[in-house]
Design a protein that fits this description.
The protein is globular. By secondary structure, it is mostly helical. The protein has helices at about 1-10, 15-20, 35-55, 65-75, 80-105, 115-135, 140-155, 160-170, 175-210, 215-220, 225-250, 275-285, 290-310, 325-350, 355-365, 390-395, 395-405, 405-410, 420-435, and strands spanning about 25, 225, 375, 380. Helix 3 (about 35-55) packs across helix 11. A hairpin with a 2-residue loop joins strand 3 and strand 4. It is built from 19 helices and 4 strands. The strands form 2 sheets. Strands 1-2 form a two-stranded antiparallel sheet.
Amino acid sequence: MRKVADWISRRLNLPPVLHHLLDEAIPGGASWIYIFGSVTLFLFVLQAITGSLLAIYYAPTPDHAYDSVRYIQDEIPFGSLIRGLHHWGSSAMMVMIGLHMLQVYLYGAYKAPREMMWLVGVCLFMLVLVFGFTGYLLPWDQKAYWATQVGINLAGTVPGIGGSLSRILRGGSDLGAFTLSRFFAVHTLFLPWTIVTLVALHLFILRRVGAAGPWDNEKAKSHSEPFYPKQVFMDAVAMGALFALLMVLANYFPAHLGDRANPSDTTFRPVPEWYFLFYYQFLKYFEGNWELVATFIIPLIFFGFLFAVPFLGRNRDRAPVQRPFAIGSGVLLLIFIFIMLGLSIRETSKIPVTDPVLVRGAGIYAKMACAGCHRIQGKGGMAGPDLSFEGDKRDKAWLIAHFKDPQSLSPGSFMPAVRLPDRDLEELTAYLLSLKK
C-alpha cells in the first residue's frame, strides 16, 4: 500500500501540495479554540454524503414525498440512522458555524487584512440558514408544510418585491408541487455547489492572508507551529467525538416524521426548528403595521451589521478589552438570543403534542371495532379483557405475537387473529402500550 502511495506521490509531485496545505504556520501554535471551522467543514461533507444517500429513495412530489421518507425511515436498511445523522448533523452544523463566527469575532480575526475572509464567512452563514429552511419542507409532513408556509409569508412582507418573492418561492400562488420541487432543487443542487465554491474561496483567502492566531501580538510572535500534526490531530479528535455523538443521537432519537401534510388543516400550529425559535418568539411582539420591523427592517440591520463589522472603527488592536463596543454589542446580542430562545422553549413546551403513531393506532383500534369486546377507561364492551392499563401488563413482542395468533398465548380465547400490514400492527401495538396508569 505504501509503495502505491509513493508511486502516486511521485507521479503527481504531491510533496509541494501537501507542504502548502499542511505546513501553514499557526501564530501562537495549535489550539482547541481553532477546531470549529474544520468541524463545520466536516459536518458539511457529512450532510452531503447522507443527503445524497437519502436522495436515492426520496421522491420530490406531494403525492410521494411523505411516503418515500417513511419508506426510508421504516424499510431501508440503516435508513433511519442515515436520516437521523442528516437531521442531527444540520443542527450540529448550525452550532459549529455559530461558534466559529463567535471565535473569530472574539479574537478580532475579521480585522485587516482578513476582511474578505469574514465577508465570505457571513455569506456561508446565510447559505447554511437557507439550507435549513429549504430542507425543512422536504419530509412533507404537517410541521414541514405549515412552517414553510409561515416562512414564505414572512418573505412576502419585503417592501416592493414581497409579492413576487413569495410567488417565486411557491412557484405559483399556492404551496404545492412546484414549491416542493423548487426547494428540493435548491437544497440538493444549487446550495451545495455554491457552498463548495465559497468554502474554496474562504480557504484560498486563508492561505493568502494566513491564520490570525491569538489576539495578543506578543504571544502570536513568540512562536508558531505548522498546521500538521498537532492542529490536525485536535481537529480529527473533535470530528470523531462529534460523529460519535451524532451516531448516538441518530440511533436513540430518530428524526421525527409527523402526519402527512394536510393543506386544509388550518388548525395546525407549526413550530420551527430550535435554531429559528428565538426569531419565532421575537416575531410575536410585532403585530399589524409593526410586523414589517421584525420581518424585514431588523434582519436587514442585523446582516448589514455583520457585513460592516470589519470596517467599523479604526482600532486595529484585536484584544477584547481594547474593543469594548464590539464585545459589548456581541454580548448583548447573545443575551437577547438566549432570552428569546428560553421564552420560546417555555411557550412551545406547553403546546399539546400528540404522537401521530398513537393517533393512527387509536384510529386502527376504532376502525377494527375492538371496542365491541374490549373496554378502555370505562368505554367499550366487556366480553374481552379490559385494556385500560395494557401498557403496564404487556410488552411489544407479546402483543404482536398475540395479535397474530391469540390462541397460542391465551388458550381458549375466542379473539380472531388480526390480519394487518406490519406497519399498522406496530401502530396498534404502540397505542395499546401507551395505555398506562
